[in-house]
Design goal:
Blueprint: H1 2-23, H2 58-69, H3 72-87, H4 96-125, H5 140-148, E1 153-155, E2 161-163, H6 165-178, H7 189-223, H8 226-236
Antiparallel strand pairs: 1-2
Helix pairs in contact: 1-7, 2-4, 3-4, 4-6, 5-7, 6-7
């Protein structure tokens, strides 16, 4: 898990640096909303860090968690984790089809409990915002630092920066819960601590990807061959 997260962080930053160097400019700012919009969980509008802040209500946090329980991304990510663990020999349930099915089920359970604790329960109890609010403005280094440190810093429901205690509690509780279905050799203090650290690092990697993905997409579209642009346009339609 740790190796995969390091590869993801390195790949995102290397690609961003390479593409920006080819243009000989700092990564361009992603477009932002002209005026603040009312929050709608199903809207494509993304609230940015510098936009007028609007907190999520408790019902919106609940709705966000419920939608994550059946999101295709949840099950796709579990498939990726299962495949990766099998390739690098980290299958907690050993081998064969039965081992793979158990590992996939455990990955789904990990994700579901993580979303419950991190998107709804602790953010609601502690009045904190579970969202990552992209910066999308400024230089690459400042944006990367901002994204990576959001596992430590979030906003409370009043919009003030605060220690992201809901993140740490959610990770700790979800990993402790996973000890109920992982094999004995995965329930040790060392193994649990390693999974907690890996999950925090994975969340930081996800923030980096979310921060820079629009830039990478835009630069790719500007430099991609015409045929690829046509295929991308057809897919968007």
């Amino acid at each position: 898990m740790l190796v995969r997260n390091y590869i993801l962080v390195g790949a995102v930053l290397f690609l961003a640096l390479t593409l920006s160097a080819q243009q000989n400019i700092i990564l361009p700012d992603a477009p932002s909303s002209v005026a603040p919009q009312k929050h709608n969980p199903k809207s494509k509008h993304v609230l940015l860090a510098d936009d007028p802040y609007r907190p999520l209500s408790n019902s919106e946090k609940l709705d966000s968690w419920v939608r994550s329980t059946y999101s295709p991304y949840t099950f796709f990510n579990a498939s990726v984790n299962t495949a990766y663990s099998s390739v690098v020999g980290e299958n907690a349930y050993c081998c064969g089809g039965t081992g793979l099915s158990k590992l996939y089920a455990a990955s789904v359970a990990d994700a579901e409990s993580r979303y419950f604790f991190g998107t709804f329960l602790f953010p609601t109890l502690l009045d904190q915002d579970p969202r990552y609010l992209p910066k999308r403005r400024g230089g690459m280094i400042s944006r990367a630092w901002y994204a990576a440190t959001r596992v430590l810093v979030t906003r409370n429901d009043e919009g003030h920066a605060t220690f992201n205690s809901s993140e740490f509690l959610a990770v700790a509780f979800s990993q402790a819960l996973s000890n109920a279905y992982y094999p004995d050799h995965y329930r040790t203090w060392g193994s649990t601590g390693s999974r907690i650290y890996g999950t925090l690092q994975s969340d930081a990697s996800g923030h980096l990807l979310e921060e820079f993905l629009p830039d990478i997409k835009r630069i790719f579209r500007n430099h991609a061959p015409a045929k690829l642009k046509g295929l991308a346009g057809s897919a968007d339609d």
